[in-house]
Specification:
Helix content: 25-40%
Structural class: alpha+beta
Radius of gyration: 13 Å
Largest sheet: 4 strands, mixed
CATH superfamily: Ribosomal protein L30/S12
Oligomer: single chain
Shape: globular
Order of helices and strands: EEHEHEHEHE
Number of helices: 4
Length: about 110
């Protein structure tokens, strides 16, 4: 478990034998299956409805947003995971021309 100013998050840097990281693989699969939700507002709305399987946030995500993620995670039992990269890298991974702080994976 990682600790970041009182917010506990599940560490997801479990490496597969072929060298791929679980987070990137999950995100790429969600993009192909059209299950990826981009952006804080959309993710928080779906977290309130317990419609997400997990949420990834960028390393540079602000503390107030992390606190909200933790709150909704506690209420809805949705896993939150830190993405080992900043919002620019997360945007690139999602093939978007802008930075992304938070993405959610639909159930």
């Amino acid at each position: 478990m990682n600790q970041r100013k009182g917010v506990s998050v599940e560490s997801f840097w479990v490496m597969y034998t072929d060298g791929d990281f679980m987070s990137e693989k999950e995100i790429k699969t969600a993009i192909k299956e059209k299950k990826l939700i981009v952006g804080s507002k959309s993710v928080f709305d779906l977290m309130k409805k317990s419609a997400l399987d997990s949420v990834f946030y960028a390393e540079n995500c602000p503390e107030d947003v992390l606190a909200q993620l933790k709150h909704y995670s506690d209420v809805s039992s949705i896993k939150i995971k830190e993405f080992k990269g900043d919002s620019e890298k997360l945007g690139e991974l999602c093939a978007k021309p802008f930075n992304i702080l938070i993405v959610g994976l639909k159930k």
